[in-house]
Design goal:
about 40% helix; about 230 residues; alpha+beta; single chain; elongated
C-alpha cells in the first residue's frame, strides 16, 4: 500500500504532458507540467512572439499593431513591407540631415536638440530616427540589447556610430561616476574605428552629399581619444 501511495504521489508530481515524465514545476490551468513543456506552451500562446517562422524573439516595437510583428533581430522587416514608404522616408531624412564635420555625426532637423529624440513616421509606424536608419542599413540586433552612441552624441542619427550593447554596459559607458570615465575611454580606444558602413549606406551618403572630408576618419578617431 505504501508503495502504491508513493507511486501515486510521484505521478501527481510528474509532468502531465503526454509522453513526458520530467518533474512538474509549473502549472498550466489545472495541469502540472515540467519547465520545458511550460516554455513550449508559453511560446505557442504568447501574443508578443516574432512573426518570423521558428523565431521565439519577443516583439518590442509596434507591439499593438495588427498583422505581422517582429523582434529586434528581424525588425528591419517592418521596413520591407512597404518599400515605397521606406524609400520616401529615407529621401526625406537625407534631405534634412546636417553633418558635423568635426565628428561625422548626423544631426536631424532643428539646430538645437530637445530632450526628445528625432522621430520619423513611416507606413504608420513612428520610429526613433537612429533606430530606423540602423535597422535599414545594418538590419536588426540581438534581443535585449540597446543601441549605444559610440560618438558620445545622443542626438546623432548616423547608423554607423551606433553599437549594440547590453543595457548595463550602456549605462556604464554613459556614466560620469568614477571609475567609469576611464573605462569609457578604454572602451572607445578599443573601438577607435567605430564607423561602420555598407554599400547601401555609402550610396545614401553620396546621394545626399553627406560625405566628410577625406580626413574624416582622423577627426572621428581624435574625438574618441580626447
Amino acid at each position: 500500500m505504501m508503495t502504491f501511495g508513493n507511486r501515486e504521489q510521484k505521478d501527481r508530481l510528474t509532468c502531465r504532458t503526454r509522453g513526458c515524465f520530467k518533474p512538474g514545476q509549473r502549472w498550466i490551468g489545472d495541469r502540472r507540467v515540467c519547465w520545458a513543456c511550460f516554455k513550449r506552451h508559453e511560446r505557442a500562446t504568447r501574443d508578443d512572439i516574432c512573426s518570423v517562422s521558428n523565431c521565439d524573439g519577443r516583439v518590442v516595437f509596434a507591439k499593438n499593431i495588427s498583422g505581422e510583428r517582429f523582434c529586434r533581430t528581424h525588425e528591419r522587416k517592418y521596413l520591407e513591407l512597404n518599400p515605397d514608404a521606406t524609400a520616401k522616408a529615407l529621401d526625406h531624412i537625407g534631405k534634412n540631415i546636417r553633418v558635423d564635420q568635426s565628428t561625422g555625426c548626423w544631426l536631424y532637423g532643428d539646430e538645437k536638440p530637445t530632450n526628445k529624440r528625432s522621430q520619423i513616421l513611416c507606413d504608420g509606424l513612428r520610429w526613433n530616427l537612429h533606430r530606423f536608419l540602423y535597422n535599414w542599413f545594418f538590419g536588426g540586433h540581438k534581443g535585449g540589447l540597446e543601441l549605444h552612441h559610440g560618438c558620445e552624441n545622443p542626438w546623432c542619427v548616423h547608423p554607423g556610430h551606433l553599437l549594440p550593447t547590453t543595457g548595463k554596459r550602456n549605462r556604464m559607458l554613459e556614466s560620469s561616476s568614477d571609475p567609469f570615465p576611464d573605462l569609457r575611454e578604454l572602451s572607445r580606444n578599443i573601438v577607435r574605428d567605430f564607423y561602420f558602413s555598407t554599400p547601401e549606406l555609402d550610396e545614401f551618403i553620396t546621394t545626399h552629399g553627406l560625405a566628410l572630408d577625406d580626413d574624416w576618419r582622423i577627426y572621428t578617431e581624435a574625438a574618441l581619444s580626447n
